Amino acid sequence: MAEAKGLGRVARRLARPFRGPEKPLTVTDRLDRWARRIAEFSVLDRAYLEAQTGRTFDSDVEAIAFYVHNDGQRGLSLHPLIEHEWMREHQPVPAMSWYDALHQEGPELFQTGPLFDAGVYAASVPEADRPASTLDALRDFLRNATDATTLPVPPGRRGHAPTWGAARDAAVSAARAFAHAQHRTRRRYRATWDGPEVAEALARYPRGVARRDAEQPLVSIVMPVYRRADVVGAAIASVRAQQHANWELLVVDDGSGDETADVVRRIAADEPRVRLVERENGGAGAARNTGLAAVRGDFVAFLDADNTWRPEHLSAALAGLLETDGPGVHTGVRMIGANNADDSTAPAETYRGEDGTLDDLLAGNFIDLNALVVRRDVAAAAGPFDETLRRWIDWEWLLRIGKRSGVPAYVPVIGVDYDNVRDPRRLSSAQPASWQEVALARHRIDWDALADAVPARDAELVSVVVPVFRDWTMTRRAVDAVLHAADHEGDRVEVVLIDNGSPRSVSAVLGAWFGDEPRVLLQREDRNRNFGLGSDLGLARSTGGTVVMLNNDTEVTTGWLRPLVAALDDPTVLGAQPLLVYPDGVVQAAGTVFGGDKVLPWHFLGDHPRYDASRALAGAGTDAARLGAAGGRRFSAITAAAAAFRAVDLIRWHGFDPVFANGLEDVDLCLRALAASPDGSAFAVVPSSVVVHHESRTPGRDDARVDNRRVFDERWRGRYPAADAAGHYEAAGLRWLGVEPGLPKGHAVMVRSSRPIVVRDWAGAAGAAGVSGAVGASGAAGAAGLRIAVKHDGTRVADVSALVTALEAAGHSVQVDLPTSWYRGSSGLDDVTVLVAGGSGTGVPSFVPQPGARNVVWLAAGQVVADGDFAEVVSADAGAERVVRAL
Fold this sequence. Notes:
Residues 220-341, 463-576 form the Glycosyltransferase 2-like domain. Strand 1 (111-113) and strand 2 (116-117) form a beta hairpin. This protein folds into four domains: 28-183, no CATH class; 198-431, Spore Coat Polysaccharide Biosynthesis Protein SpsA, Chain A; 444-757, Alpha-Beta Complex (Spore Coat Polysaccharide Biosynthesis Protein SpsA, Chain A), CATH 3.90.550.10; 787-886, Response regulator (Rossmann fold, 3-Layer(aba) Sandwich), CATH 3.40.50. The chain is of the alpha/beta class. 36% of the residues lie in helices and 19% in strands. Strands 3, 4, 5, 6, 7, 8, 9, 10 and 11 form a nine-stranded mixed beta sheet that branches. A five-stranded mixed beta sheet has the order 14-13-12-15-22.
């Protein structure tokens, strides 16, 4: 065989000069060649791919071709046992594509997904027939497996191993649900109008046309207007041009204060069907409600002052509505311009309009209020527009109509020309996009029903709610850690995962890995609902009497849960958080502190050594700040990255406010909770509970930072909690001097970022350390009680351990810093740095000595450093005690 391959290569090399120059391969050529090779794998499950895409394919070749041309955008999978992202973490060369990893046919047997481990399968096959590669193992399994065959799952997967038939059915069902979600959330704008001509469309409604012409129903039109003197005339003219002439137009001037009302008044003088209603400024929702209260027709329509109707709009809408006596209809919309985009280019022209279900409407609005005509009784049943919303007011009202009366039907006629060009006068466009989640939350969560069901909750069960977006790797680690700790401690937990509209692979992997673990519930949302609404949806799904909110980038430690739950035994404790630390041991958050009005709160002791938190949370300080005999401190707010609450309280407070998009929603919750609770209530930080917080990699996490600050400041301006930072820092032996203000992030936000200025409280630090002695000229306490940072790179672990033990025995405070924390923000408070140089042959790490501190390096054998780089160099043959004496 090898000889034949060699002869083939020689023949191809000899023939190459006679073939002429080779044409460069196009992207399509490469993809087609890839498709042909994938077909040779014989691992396609066509029905599974069809379920993901909502399509059918005539052949495997067609299916694979579709896959290779679309996988980059869709994240598709060819088989329930192949998950490309999972393979990337388990195949020998992570940088390889999944195709190359299988094509190599190397001896390494690896996992192709959370349900198939080639090594596990191969071990179950007699040695004589044992597959030699991962691809061979996969193909051999598929050839021989029946629906009742147990899958060779990877080690560590919880629950029993499922059968192939059950796993495939679950995968196809999940894929089909994903395809339906993709359909609901698809982009609903089209570049060209693909509907019928008006006459053809109206021919579908013969009964409606006849009733419209015979009955001539009155249509009441509500037009809110605010400072639109330049365009309101054109909008009114489009109403006067309607083919259906029996209408009344109520123009509601929302306190414009300019010439807008005069323009309308002049038109109304010549047109008795136009009425002007004037009111104080209250927003579009209030103006529409004023108009709705004055309508007299059997049908209601809406038109904004910056848009126009085509003459056939009302005529076509009434025909469609009277055909079936449905709740309402909407016509098609032609949109000019690209709001929130670069309008300096030529205006874009797009079209929208289609039918949909209530699930489609919940996934996103596809009915424009300007295109809507509803029965008056339907509008009355829905109630007034919500005047507390600043955006998506019309969508929330349409959702009420859809739930009470049914979703309005689509009449395929262009009825509206919509001005979508960016305009600074559109006040709603300046509001954060998170108002969409606020509007939706009212139709996804019934707080009254949740409150009524509180007695049925399992008081001994702890529900851990974990919102997820795009990352299954950290999530799997986080959930496994929670379950491992619960198994070790005997705690009863359930984990509620809310997948916030992640790509297909996230829920596919998590569902397969935890599919047989009854303590894990997975709910996938059509879109990203952010941390706030995602957590609230998890709360609604939970069943425990205690609810823990947990970021998916955390990793709990053994013994973390019981101290948090125990803290809630005190009725004055509204919620409790653990000590959050980074993987390198540096503190991430030990509570939330305030510095006064218009100073954004910050994480207490963020980026500080662990010993600062141990002192501050050990119960030192005033009695008002203490938390029982077990230690801990009380705060006005805590972080929800990891926090325990009573379910009844969270429901009473209506959870997080979704207007905050991944920032400040936890502080807002705490302040609302304090305002609704008796005096003396507070939140707790429990030092005996420790959770590691890995650095978040969630895309777009900080996109709404400026909007969050603006919303927070508008809500709490003048009502910030009193500055409490000084007392908390004092308990740690530190002194808070104030804040260093940051630069404004957009001048519309009337609050600036700030960074705490913290210095050593020398007397307090010495007392907290249990040492005495005068403070020398350098500012450090005498012979003991120094703050010492031991810097090392992970080598010489035994030497580092011995050094830390000796330093602490001498009364010093020691923080061991890995390279990620060598230059942590609190390093300026350290008196001494000790660089433990790497093992023999590794060289001296490139640590830049710290200004203002005494810098010592402890060398390994064969290492040297330049003179003057460090205050003192300790030789390789010196022990830990010698280093301590040098200090």
